[in-house]
Amino acid sequence: MKKIILQRIAAISVSAILTVTNFVGMANVLAKEETAGVTSNIVDERQSVSAFSRSFIEAESNVSQKNINSEYENVYLMKKGNKAVFSVNVSERGAYNISLIFNDAKETAESYDFALTVDGTAPFDGSQALTVNTLWEDDGDVRTLASGDQIAPSQRHTNGFKTRLITDSSGIDLKPYEFNMSAGVHKIAITASGTDFILAGIKLTTPETVSDYSDILNEYADKDKYTGKQIVIEAEKPLYKNSFSLTSKSDNGSASISPKSSGKSVINYIGGVSWNSSGDEIAWEFEAPKDGLYKIGFAFKQSEVNHGSVYRHLKIDGKTPFSEAENITFKYTTKWKFKSFADQSGNDYLIYLSEGKHIISLAVTLSDVSEVFKRLSEIVEPLGNNYLDMVMITGESPDANRNYQLQKQIPDFEITLRNISKNIDTLSGDIAAGLNVNGELDGALKNMDRILNEMLDSLYNCHTQIPSYFSAYQTLSAWLYDIKTMSLSLDQIVLAAPEKEFVTPQASFWQRVVFFLSQFANSYIDSDNSIISCGDDKAPTLKLWVNWGRDQVKALSNLVQDAFVAQNKVNVKIEQVNASLVQGVVSGNSPDLYLHMARTEPVNLAMRGVICDLK
To answer: Which one of 105, 355, 455, 542 is CB 3.0 to 4.6 Å from 462, fit for a cystine?
Structure first.
């Protein structure tokens, strides 16, 4: 019985999550239907509208504190429940994106939650639960331990105010939210609902209009192609990112990465499993030596989505160069590869750059998976509700010899099953026709459809299918999360002359052989010990033993470096061992600290009189 209750709770939770997701997924549509009662009429010539302290309506706001800022005059400290109302004069009616101009009030904040209303009304259900992410940068350079291993720099907020578009935080809607505005004055209210932040104002801009590459190519007719040396951007050196977890990492197991090391851990890429959620963005700064057309390529590894693809949205200086850049595909590979950004025929896409500094960014996007997610949600939600209806009558293990008459006890039971089956058939057909989705979702859909058809063919015995029904339902529910995984590891971004070959980090056969032999030799030479110094050789040193893998030891070293050594002026020596503390005591080589020992070890040590009373 307890198991049944837990399953019901799980099913209800899934349904609740999906319901919220559907609301968010419909946000753009609802915004178009409800805001100011006008239809979309996008005019490219419309000017952006900004609202700062001079447009602030103090009588309708309840901001607890105002801070003086030279750039924006007055800015507002937004604590939970505080509301700031701005007056915006829209010159022409149409659809607008809204950006928040804000700064960080707390060093550890990662995102800020708020609600938005237009003229006192919520434009859509999801507008009461909006989120913007703050921006992060490396706090200094890569750090090198006494062992020679490198660890990533710690993270800090970027300086100054940020301007961030309001988007779907779940990443299901790929475009920023659009708010339709009639011409005239509107009151836009921002109400903080989470972590404190500093608000300078809001900005209304026209939605980005992106042309296909074939149209852009006509504009390139009078542009010269770049002919100089290629520009290499090391991905592990970003300008900023919108997630604290997007830190640089090391891979010393391949010769086809830059920089490479067969012995020491060298920071040489960014991403991996931490760069997998829709909307996660990383940006880099580079300098174009001359005006011209450039081709672009990426050194990458995509080993998380088995036999599938992940997608990235490329922007230059905050703008999408052409529609094909909205969905750059990276296919499955367990090795580091180099990919030129090209069409299916292998023709390179060219991007025009003016001389000077530019910012290139890559953001996780779901591409076709977004549509699949929405449609799969519409299938999974009624499946979960229907399962609850059935088990409330039959229990977890229905009696095969009993007729529960589910078709009579559950309203619209047969209609519900037929509608779900129809939606499954439609989605399965579209996937077969070329709708991109990772993995074998089509097989899971067909299995669910088979079960539904068997239930419809024998309604009086359909209760015997409930265990199979629940198993197939769980599989589809899991797919809702699995298909959104878009992990990617990135080593380099290369911009090069269109008429020249890319010079890539890919190693030749003999280079790989030499690298392997060097790794083999280093396995006998290198120690897995890590000495973290506070800069004072005379300071006391703590010896710490851990019986973990090398990656875990590196993570621990990073934490010790950031949170202990500098603050306490103590050196720490971390030793990776496969010995018990008793063996250390007997040999006279015991550590000061031992992490992650077995539960029985304290009793074992107490019996031998080696426990110290810290009181």
So the answer is: 455
Angstrom distances, CA of residue 65 to CA of 80, 81, 105, 196, 590: 13, 13, 12, 12, 56
The beta strands (E) that lie in 48-110 are given as 49-51, 65-69, 73-78, 83-90, 94-104
Residue 362 CA to residue 489 CA, distance in Å, equals 12
The pLDDT averaged over each successive group of 10 residues in the chain (615 residues) is 38 34 35 33 53 77 70 86 92 92 91 94 90 93 80 90 91 88 92 92 92 91 93 96 92 90 88 92 96 96 87 95 94 94 94 96 90 90 93 88 88 93 92 77 90 91 91 90 88 95 92 88 68 68 82 77 77 81 79 81 78 72
Beta strands in 29-183 (DSSP E): 49-51, 65-69, 73-78, 83-90, 94-104, 111-118, 130-133, 136-138, 143-144, 150-151, 155-157, 162-165, 179-181
Would you tell me how many other CB atoms lie within 10 Å of the CB of residue 540?
12
* Both structure tokens of 350: 């060219």
As a whole number of angstroms, the distance between CA 379 and CA 421 comes to 9
Cα 63 to Cα 56, 58, 74, 76, 103: the distances in Å are 11, 8, 12, 7, 15
* Burial (CB count within 10 angstroms: exposed 0-12, middle 13-18, buried 19+), residue 479: buried
Closest by CA position to 321, among listed 202, 495, 502, 170: 495
Q: How far is 590 from 599, CA to CA, in rounded Å?
A: 19
Neighbouring residues of 226: CB distance < 8 A, sequence distance ≥ 6:
288, 290, 292, 293, 294, 353, 496, 497, 498
C-alpha to C-alpha distance for 188 and 74, rounded to whole angstroms? 18
List C-alpha distances in Å: 454 to 359, 411, 448, 470.
56, 19, 10, 14
Of 431, 464, 463, 467, nearest to 446 by C-alpha is 431
- What per-residue string of b and e applies to 555-587 under the rule 16 or more CB within 10 Å gives b? ebbbebbbeebeeeebbbbbbbbeebbeebeee
Written as one letter, the residue type at 316 is: I
The Cα–Cα gap between 156 and 153 comes to 10
CA–CA separation, 329 and 575 (whole Å) = 42
Q: Alpha-carbon torsion 481, 482, 483, 485, what sign?
A: positive
Assigned token pair, 387? 């399962």
Show the tokens assigned to 417: 């099953």
Label the pairing between strands 292-302 and 333-340. antiparallel
CA distance 291 to 246: 32
- Report the Cα–Cα distance between both ends of the chain, in Å, rounded: 48
| pTM (2 d.p.) | 0.80
